[in-house]
Design brief:
This protein is of the alpha/beta class and about 250 residues long. About 40% of the residues lie in helices and about 15% in strands. It has helices spanning about 15-30, 40-50, 65-80, 105-130, 150, 165-185, 215-225; strands at about 10, 30-35, 55-60, 85-90, 135-140, 190-195, 235. The longest helix is centred in the middle third of the chain and has 26 residues, at about 105-130. The protein is globular. InterPro entries: Fungal_SecMetab_SDRs (IPR051468), NAD(P)-bd_dom_sf (IPR036291), SDR_fam (IPR002347).
Length: about 250
């Protein structure tokens, strides 16, 4: 996408953290951004903050676990814009942060509902609008913590992290990316998993975790992949634009 004029992008979970910074970077690139947020008040405040900087951002109420808000969001985008060019599925929760031997059924179900089922629900609902784009693409914000290869590597710095609900949901999300990529390849809809890297965000309760980087930097890396002129499909990219082997 060499020319960003008139492009429409939707970022879910965008009122704070990585999603907020992705919205900011996209808008600075000249894209009209729909800033998805579960909480209307927080979403409105976040959009106003970016509007005050002269950025083209619209608040969009969207709870990925609520089919009614998804349907309403699709109708709004269809009525106002008629299409969607870029969908960035960013909304996520970390779950209870417990290891596999302690995780509860409730935590697994709640985390999967947001991090995996919610992404499927949003993507499926917006597919008709993505099909009306000249160069549609879907980016699922994932994590290397869902990689069985990396978690099994004792030399990987985060191999000892044990947050079963979150990690399992991201593994499932990456499979979902591959399944979408295969199914939508003939329609030339690019579907990718992307990672912002280890960042200090709301998922860690804002704590300055050891080694956690600037969320804006991670967001910028994802936006660069989103705006690539000829993106591939079915792959996992890190924030540096490198393909990661799952």
């Amino acid at each position: 996408m060499a020319n960003n004029d008139n492009l429409i992008a939707l970022v879910t979970g965008a009122n704070a953290g990585i999603g907020f910074h992705m919205t900011q970077h996209l808008a600075r690139a000249g894209i009209r951004v729909l800033q998805g947020s579960r909480d209307p008040a927080r979403g409105t405040n976040a959009a106003r903050q970016l509007n005050a900087d002269g950025l083209e951002v619209d608040q969009l109420t969207l709870d990925v676990t609520d089919d009614q808000t998804i349907a309403a969001a699709v109708k709004h985008v269809a009525d106002k814009y008629g299409r969607l060019d870029i969908l960035i599925n960013n909304a996520a929760i970390v779950g209870d942060g417990l290891p596999a031997s302690q995780v509860s059924r409730a935590s697994l179900l709640q985390t999967f509902d947001t991090n995996t089922a919610g992404i499927a629900a949003v993507t499926n609902a917006f597919l008709p609008l993505l099909r009306k784009s000249g160069r549609p693409r879907v980016l699922n914000v994932s994590s290397e913590l869902g990689s069985t290869r990396l978690v099994n590597d004792p030399d990987w710095p985060h191999s000892n992290v044990a947050a079963a609900a979150y990690q399992l949901s991201k593994s499932a999300l990456d499979m979902l990316t591959v399944l979408y990529a295969k199914e939508l390849a003939e329609e030339k809809i690019s579907v990718l998993s992307v990672s912002p890297g280890y960042r200090a965000t709301g998922l860690s309760n804002g704590e300055p975790m050891p080694g956690a980087g600037d969320p804006s930097e991670g967001a910028a890396g994802i936006v660069a992949v989103a705006l690539a002129v000829d993106p591939p499909t079915g792959l996992f990219f890190n924030w540096q634009g490198e393909v990661v082997a799952w």
